[in-house]
Fold this sequence. Notes:
Blueprint: E1 28-37, E2 40-50, E3 55-59, H1 66-74, E4 81-86, H2 92-95, E5 99-102, H3 114-122, H4 133-139, H5 156-167, E6 174-178, H6 186-201, E7 205-209, E8 222-227, E9 230-236
Amino acid sequence: MTDSDSHPVSSSYSETAHFGSAHSEPAAVLQGVSKLFGRFAALHDLSVTLPAGRIYALLGENGAGKTTLLRIIAGLSRPTRGSVRILGSTDARAVCARIGYMAHATLLYDELTARENLGYFRGLYPAGKTASIDELLEQVGLAHVDVRRRVGQYSQGMKQRVALARAMLSSPDLLLLDEPFSNVDVKSIATMAALLGRLRDRGATVIVVTHQLEALSKIADEWITLHAGTVVGREATHNRLPVNAGRGGEQ
């Protein structure tokens, strides 16, 4: 789909609509958020509330603002205008240990093994505040891999699974993933998707930027579509692809 194509607002969408419990603190509340890079508005007057304990798939064409939104929620970027409340706090530093973030690039050290990578990043967290490396590798399906094998020798799917394990080091309440299934084999996608479903079932909130809708079609709770830096559609998944998936999955 090109920029000239129309992007109708889903009939199920409203600025205040959500599908979670009204009694729980939302995972994220953004009001009137804009993010400018020079004269370019990556986000424009975006407002969205994301109840906790759900899996959200962020959809949209390249340049729609998905990664920028994810970075603002993660506290890695500040909005030019608007307010942001994450996990009940307006101070990103106060909740950063409760957030796991997986960038589009794996950002792993190729010369280190998976355990060495995770051990290094675990050292960035307070002592006693991280999950077991062995348990994480088991969860992402890599416990069987030769402990001497360096990450540089891994397939892309294996690297993505290590990056996911790193994002889970702090047992986060909010997990943010930017294109985790990109260039990943079918087996790795299935392993990662099943794990995300289990994390949600345990109470975590998961927000995933992806173009591979099928990977989340059985586990996501809601499709959220961005266009030109704002939310133009929200749709409960009901175990199916979004309404406009037939047009390339980019609404």
